[in-house]
Amino acid sequence: MAKGAEVAEHGSFSSKDYHDPPPARLIDPEELIRWSFYRAIIAEFIATLLFLYITVLTVIGYKSQTDPAKNADACGGVGILGIAWAFGGMIFVLVYCTAGISGGHINPAVTFGLFLARKVSLIRAVLYMVAQCLGAISGVGLVKAFQKAYYDRYGGGANELAAGYSTGTGLGAEIIGTFVLVYTVFSATDPKRNARDSHVPVLAPLPIGFAVFMVHLATIPITGTGINPARSLGAAVIYNNAKAWDDQWIFWVGPFIGAAIAAFYHQFILRAAAVKALGSFRSSSRV
Q: Which of 39, 210, 43, 185 is nearest to 119 (CA)?
């Protein structure tokens, strides 16, 4: 009763306490004349370069520390857990650093999912992906430049389907793993969540980094964990191994399918975008 009286006294409250940003234009030529647009592209390039440099170094260092040819301890090094932490931790750090500049995508699959959800324009999405791929190639190139002998000996950090697993299993692992990541990105950056849960400090890069960490734990034994086409392409280009190139399509098709499913699920199921659009159409038709 008291609550009802309060509503009556202060007037009716809006049932929607948040505002969705307007959908991005499919093609926005005005972006091309803004410095902020090019600054964002540079940020994506540098972030992806740093991501690949640290993570590939971690992978190669682990293989060197456990190399049987060196009589090394098979249980030594950082292990799969440490590799997963390197990938997840770097995503946490880099998303935190670049979110206010470029959105902190650092992954063509994330960019693709956000494009499908009309969060970024086609021009921005394409140039982000180009910058991410070039950054990944540059990052792995730095690793090879600094540690060429170790790089060639220990596989260059390239993604390949592990022996004993079928192509379908590898593709499924990449689809589901990328779905987890992109779904987390949508949820962590949802304007509705930020408005309703404003009393809880929500740091979006943290759950995104944890998603990357958890997916790596699950899929490193299967594919080495791609879920990022730029990461897979960068290692394949610099390592230039036939097996890595033969399996490369898995690390593009899988992540893009996973990202598309995540975008559809979040936008049309959880956020009911189709229902809202239909309701808006019906309301306008009655006027």
A: 185
Residue 21 sits at φ, ψ, to 5 deg, of: -65, 150
∠ Cα 208 273 110 (to 5°): 30
What is the rounded CA–CA span in Å between residue 187 and residue 171? 24
Is residue 17 within 8 Å of residue 199, measured between CB atoms? no
Is the dihedral angle over the CA atoms 148, 152, 153, 155 positive or is it negative?
A: positive
Lookup: tokens for 77: 């090094």
Q: How far apart are CA 157 and CA 59, in angstroms?
A: 6
CB atoms within 10 A of CB 35: 7
Q: What is the pLDDT of residues 167-214, one digit of tens each?
A: 999 999 999 999 999 999 999 988 776 655 554 445 889 999 999 999
Question: Under a CB-based contact definition with an 8 Å cutoff, are residues 43 and 35 in contact?
Answer: no
The answer to whether 84 touches 202, Cβ cutoff 8 Å, is: no
pTM for the predicted model, two decimal places: 0.86
Report CA torsion sign: 174, 157, 236, 160. Answer: negative
Q: Tell which phi-psi region holds residue 225, choosing left (phi > 0), alpha (psi between -120 and 50) or beta.
A: left
Query: Can you list the pairs that 61-70 forms with residues at least 24 positions away whose Cβ atoms lie under 8 Å?
Result: 63/154, 63/155, 64/150, 64/153, 64/154, 67/154
Sole residue written with tokens 């249980």: 75
Tell me the percentage of the chain whose pLDDT exceeds 70. 82
Helix (H/G/I), strand (E/B), else coil: 24: coil
CA distance 86 to 55: 6
